[in-house]
Each structure stands twice: as C-alpha cells, then as structure tokens.
Amino acid sequence: MRFLVIAIGRLKNGPERDLAARYRERAVALGRGLGITACDLTELPESRARRSADRVAEEAEAILALVPADAAVITCDERGRSDWPSERIAARIGEWRDAGRPALVLVIGGADGLHDSVRRRADHILAFGAATLPHGLVRVLALEQAYRALTILAGHPYHRGDPEA
Q1: Are the C-beta atoms of 145 and 3 separated by less than 8 Å?
Q2: What is the pLDDT of residue 135?
Q3: How many CB atoms lie within 10 A of CB 130?
Q4: How far is CA 136 from each of CA 23, 92, 111, 118, 161, rounded to the nearest angstrom?
Q5: N or C, which terminus of the chain has less Cβ within 10 Å?
C-alpha cells in the first residue's frame, strides 16, 4: 500500500512545512517494514474561479483525478467524525492494507472546503475537532496521524494512548 496526501494549496517555507516534511519522512522510514511503499505529497494549486462553488468543484475534479482506483480515501473535513481515536484510525489502515487496497489517500481541501463528490468518494471523513484550523496545521496533523498509525501498527513506543481504545 502507498500513502498519498493530496492537498489544495502549497505550504510556504516555514515551521508547518518543516514539521509536515518531518512526519512524512518518518512515515516513509517506518512504513517500509509494514508494507507501506511510499508517503507521497501532491500539492494542487488553489482554483482561481471567482465563485466559491466553482472553486470547490474545480478542486474536486483535480483531486479525484489523482485518486487511484480501489484506493481507501480519508478526507479531512470539519464536518467529519472527530470521535475516532488514533488506535481506530490505525486499525482501519491495517484492515485496508491487509485487504490489498493499493493506496490510502489523505485529502485536505482548500479554504472553501471539499466538494460533495470528494466526500462521497471517502471511506472515512475525519475532523480534528469542531474548530476551524489553518490549512498548514491540518496538513501537519494529518501527516502526524499517518505516522502515529504506523507506529501503532508496528508496536512502536511513540504512541502511548489507551491500547484498549
């Protein structure tokens, strides 16, 4: 299985970009022993359409064009579920990997959110709480959770959460 993070917008050089890169690199290194072949990041430009609905639709088209057939998809959306602990996320990723899904795609939309077509394609819609968060921070959180999920699957001591969750 390969991890693919698709994000609308490009992070500028700075602490968020550095931290996101650090978690992605850690995921790549740990993932090799778990059957995760890569953790790629694709940054798509924000749509230049004037109307919000048109921007979201254009971005959705670009996102969905990059999602491999039969991939598991997790979207990060403030309207998603925030009740999945890291252990549950890890278990789902392990199930998808063991079922032979070729990829896990983490989708992070732009400032105007995600189009319904992207949410419908998702196997899980994840929220990092009820607050609206900056785009760069969501990218860091998504990559940290990917890395954390791999540490849980590997039995690595990085995660110290409730093993019964």
Answers
A1: no
A2: 85
A3: 8
A4: 13, 25, 11, 20, 25
A5: C
